[in-house]
Every structure is written in C-alpha cells, then in structure tokens.
C-alpha cells in the first residue's frame, strides 16, 4: 500500500505550519496581482482586497474542493486602459462586472449541458499540450522578470537582475529537493526570503524602505462604488462597457486550462467534482465583485497552482488563510508597501520554477496517458498547439466599421487560440481514438 504523500483539501496543517504555508501562496501571487492595478491605474490595495474576498467566495462556491487562489487577470489590462481613458474608470469597472456575469451565464449553460461533451473535444493529447502551453507561454514573463530592468521606458538586460534571480532560483530548488519535513513544503517562501535578504546585502539600492517607513499603519483601499454606481445609471456607459465584457470569452479558456492543470496536480477529476460549472460560477462572482468595488477581474493563478504542485499541500484552509491575510494586508499600508519592495528579479527567480512545474504536469500527462507520438495525427495536433501557444500567437480585432467600438483592443491570447485550434483539429481529423492514448484503450479493454 503506497504511503500518502499529500495534504488533502479537507485537512488542516498544524498551526505552526499553517501560517508559513499561507504566506507562501500570498507571496507567489503578490507580484502579478498588484502589477495589473499599477498598469491600469487602479488601486493595488483594492486588488489585494478583491483577490482575498474573491478567493473566499470561490472556495465557498466550489464546496472547498478546489484549492485555487484568485488574483488579477492580465487579459483585461488593455481593455481597461482603453475604456478608462475614453469613458472613465467607472465604465471600465462596469465592463469588468459584466464580464463576471458572462462567466455566470456560461456556468449555468455548463450545469445544464453537463461536461461529458468535454471528454470528446478535449482528449489527453489536446489537454496535455494546452497544459504545457500554459506553463511555457508564461516563460517569457518569468525570464523578463528575472533578467531585465526598465530604463527610460525600455526593458534591458541586467547582470544584477540575473544574479539575484539565479540566487533565488538556486535556493528554491535546493529547498525543494534537499530539505525534509515542513521546510520541504515551503521552498517558494524560503527562496523569496533568501532572494530578498541577498538583495539587501548585495544591492540595497534596489529595495526602497522609505515608503514603508512613511506609509500609514491603517489605510483603507480605494473602493470605486460611486463611480460604478454612476456608470450603472448611464445608458451610454453600458454600451462602452460592452467593449470589455467579451474578454471573458478569452479568459474562459484560461480558466479551463487552469482547472485541467489543477486536476492533474491533484490526481482527480475536478471537472465533475466539484464541477466546471461551480468553478466558472466562483470565478464569475469574484470577477463581478471586483468590478463592482474597484478591483481588476479575478482569475485562477498559475503561480499558486505551481505551489500546489511543488508542495502537494492542497488544504483549503491554507488557501483561505492566504486570502484572509491578503484582505488584512490591504488595510495595512506598511505591510502593503513592504510587500511592494520585493525585487522583481526575486519574483522572477521563483516564477521560472513555478511555470516550469506547470509545463512538466503536461509532459506527465503525455506519459501517463501513453500518447503515441509515432501517430502522425497526435504529432500534428500537439505541434500546432505548442507552436501557436508558446510562440505567443495573438489575434487582434481593430478598425472594422461598425464593430470597431466593440472589438477595438480585444485580443485573443495565445492560450485561447491554441486551445481552440487543437479542438478544431481533433474534431476534423480522422482517427479520434488515437488521441485518447494507449492508457485509455487498455482501460476500455479491461472494462470490456
């Protein structure tokens, strides 16, 4: 009988372990979550608040069976900036609220139609390839964070950044591989702390603690309820908000991919229990709430899924405490500012590991499903998904008469496009059974 090597969703680690495990998740998502509001002109503290509340709602709606943390979605950056500049921030946030309602509507459809059809359109060769894409398409972001700095608006290579990120990455890897017991469960936290201390000793000019010293101990997030309420009563604002709402169809594919990755990490079918409809509903409610009070739309986070894969601690209590900490920190100016001082190369160093772990989960699925790559059909489908996904292929809709105002700055990202392409190729090419893998055939023979 094999020994259990994970902490399940319903289990709660000891109090002494709970806090470090939760802080690790908070650190993993922090950099990307606050970057979105910084780029879009929203309030980082509000983004922390909405990510925490959104995560708690997500856990509640998914019955505590899906330990995902929700952070700020990058897909909405362009549309939010465009609409905010042209129509005001209230209209942009109304669009975010409407995008959350799109999720809710799709969740209702999925609940009615079921998920059996997904087994037909998403065989292992497609799912595994999409999972690899989700990990490796983020590699550019991780490497840029780890190796570059911004000088006069230009991103340039920095030996200092490379030095810091390498130290962080090496410490993270050694902690994950060499340490035992509880410390083996917090390699990301150990790596970030080590990278931060190393930067303080070797390159203190990169960490500005003055803002921490001058920040208020207690400070409320900048909620935008009045601006959104005004937009709700303005018919013209509704029309403009529809520019953002369709972005939800792009992030739906990302959500599906993250759910597939989490299923592989946890070795269970989360599509059926708690169900895709519940995860979509949770994400939609979190996104709608964020739009209502002034935060960027929410999404499940690759960084935190990477933490799950490394630690194999799936406890919903750990995720819930991380969410509570995010809420508390959003009201504490000094802690928020302190977290903002974490150097980008430090976050880049751990992100390289986290995103690579996600890609490795896809490779694992190829192996476990026994996908036959001597079959040309499988090879072509995987090749198309990997190249269009990792290559960063994007389709932008701009400047087309009547549709210009609706489609301007709407981009179908590489993950969504490669997923769609893989599904189409699987559906139109003959020999669909080969895409299921040899493991599926053996299982069917055993059942028969």
From TrEMBL:
Report membrane topology.
Answer: Multi-pass membrane protein
One matching Pfam family is: Xan_ur_permease
Superkingdom assignment: Bacteria
For this UniProt record, the keywords arranged alphabetically read as follows: Cell membrane, Membrane, Transmembrane, Transmembrane helix, Transport
Q: What is a GO molecular function of this protein?
A: xanthine transmembrane transporter activity
Q: Which residues cross the membrane?
A: 21-39, 45-62, 69-86, 92-110, 122-143, 155-175, 182-201, 237-261, 318-340, 346-367, 379-395, 415-431
Cellular compartments annotated: Cell membrane
What the entry lists under InterPro entries is as follows: NCS2 (IPR006043), Xan_ur_permease (IPR006042)
The answer, when asked if Transport is one of the entry's keywords, is: yes
Which PROSITE patterns does the UniProt entry name for this protein?
Answer: XANTH_URACIL_PERMASE
GO CC annotation terms, alphabetical:
plasma membrane
Keyword DNA repair, does the record have it? no
**Which family does the entry's similarity section mention?**
Belongs to the nucleobase:cation symporter-2 (NCS2) (TC 2.A.40) family.
* Name by which UniProt lists this protein: Uracil permease
